[in-house]
Specification:
eight-stranded mixed β-sheet, Protein-Tyrosine Phosphatase, Chain A, 15 helices, 2 domains, alpha/beta
């Protein structure tokens, strides 16, 4: 077998399959079953319990919170997320740390040997590699973030012990459907009969109750079975336990900064429903300290406060706008999106929260929206903005614009945030 570096493998996988997104579980499941048979893997992923998380927004944050809670209680945990910001290895973590190149390469080599004539997408290789690495690691719990939909996502080949649906809104309509009801049906495809389904969406689309009932899962609803209460800069969680015995009736004095309270609440309920042994003080510490790259991440660059947020659809933009409106001082934006995103609605939500916009077209991304189109919509909405040649140039102009009293918010895509993280990293390293 050819000895390839991880970079060489990734370049090969990006070019091999005819479609970047090719939803369906038959191909990836066939290769996974071949692997399980060849290695005598029992259960879904060995002895590991599995939590699968889907949702339009909040799924990455939910996975990060679950991981933080588990590590605070000394559980061994593997997490599979996507996409990555700076290093491909970010997608596959064990106990909070990225796996090394060799582990991924070894998994890729196994997949290549077993797939024979089956063509797999970049993401399907990614998902299979994660499952193989986790099966080799003897973990207590595995966390699988659904990449795009749910029912036809590669992660859904695993029959999870707990399914979580964080939110349901319009995004990826060309693949998932053009209504919230159609999208909900896809997301709910991760649920399994007679197993817990944690629902974090409170604004239910039409017919949602019937769709949930069809899954035959044991649904727990935010706002009905479990809840959270916000009080300014803090919040408390009121979880649902399986019996009269509970480790704690409520969890109070929780920080309302950083990741959203709703995602922290849903994450805690998922672990309670899994039957994990949880301590109130350890939960509180984990919830108050958890952070995740690119999700309302706070940094400082040249003494200017930065907010990095991957908000890339109207629902996420509305949440970001709410957070920005609660802060004082001038706000300067650096933004760019992919061409399939509802830029108009995103701008409408964020217009009151942003004083000046710096726009650039994402370079090297085939699905990037045209910079002139983004700027034209701003002007038509009566918004001041500047089109730069690159995200990096837009960022530098925004830093100058913010001055000593303002802040810069970077949003619109994982690619947008990743470009700024790379730029800052190079500045720090002196490259």
């Amino acid at each position: 077998m050819t000895n390839r570096s991880l970079a060489e493998w990734l370049e090969l996988l990006e070019q091999r399959h005819p479609c970047e997104i090719d939803l369906g579980v038959e191909r990836v499941n066939e290769v996974w079953q071949r692997y399980k048979t060849s290695q005598s893997v029992t259960g879904e992923i060995g002895r590991s319990k599995v939590i699968t998380v889907a949702g339009t927004n909040g799924k990455g944050s939910c996975v990060a919170v679950i991981q933080s809670l588990l590590l605070a209680h000394d559980y061994s945990v593997g997490s599979f997320t996507s996409p990555h910001f700076q290093h491909y290895n970010e997608r596959i973590c064990i106990n909070g740390s990225m796996v090394d190149d060799q582990q991924i390469i070894s998994a890729f080599e196994s997949i290549e040997h077993l797939r024979e004539q089956i063509s797999l997408t970049y993401f399907e290789f990614n998902a299979l590699a994660a499952l193989i690495i986790f099966s080799r690691s003897n973990l207590d719990i595995v966390l699988l973030e659904v990449g795009l939909g749910g029912r036809l996502d590669a992660a859904n080949i695993i029959n999870c012990d707990i399914a979580v649906v964080t939110s349901i809104d319009l995004d990826h309509q060309q693949w998932l459907g053009d209504t919230r009801t159609k999208i909900a049906k896809e997301k709910l495809g991760i649920a399994r009969a007679n197993r817990p389904l944690i629902i974090g969406e409170k604004n239910h689309p039409e017919g949602f109750g019937s769709l949930v009932k069809e899954t035959q899962a044991q649904a727990l609803w935010l706002g009905q079975d479990f809840s959270f209460t916000e009080n300014g800069r803090s919040f408390s969680i009121q979880p649902k336990w399986h019996s009269q015995h509970s480790d704690f009736d409520a969890l109070d004095n929780l920080s309302n900064q950083g990741l959203l309270a709703v995602n922290k609440t849903v994450a805690l309920q998922a672990l309670i429903s899994l039957g994990c042994d949880l301590d109130a003080d350890s939960c509180r510490a984990a919830l108050n300290n958890v952070a995740i790259m690119g999700r309302h991440q706070n940094l400082t660059y040249q003494s200017v406060p930065l907010i990095l947020d991957v908000a890339h659809n109207p629902a996420a933009a509305a949440v970001l706008a709410h957070k920005l409106n609660a802060q004082q001082g001038k706000t300067v934006a650096v933004a760019s999106v992919l061409e399939d995103k509802d830029w108009s609605s995103m701008v409408a939500h964020l217009k009151p929260a942003i004083d000046y916009w710096h726009i650039a077209e994402l370079s090297g991304i085939s699905r990037a929206a045209k910079g002139q189109s983004l700027l034209k919509l701003l002007y038509n909405a009566g918004i001041e903005g500047t089109l730069s040649d690159s995200i990096e140039q837009a960022f530098q102009l925004a830093i100058c614009e913010a001055g000593k009293t303002g802040k810069v918010v970077v949003f619109g895509s994982f690619h947008t945030v990743a470009a700024i993280l790379d730029f800052i990293s190079m500045e720090v390293s002196g490259e």
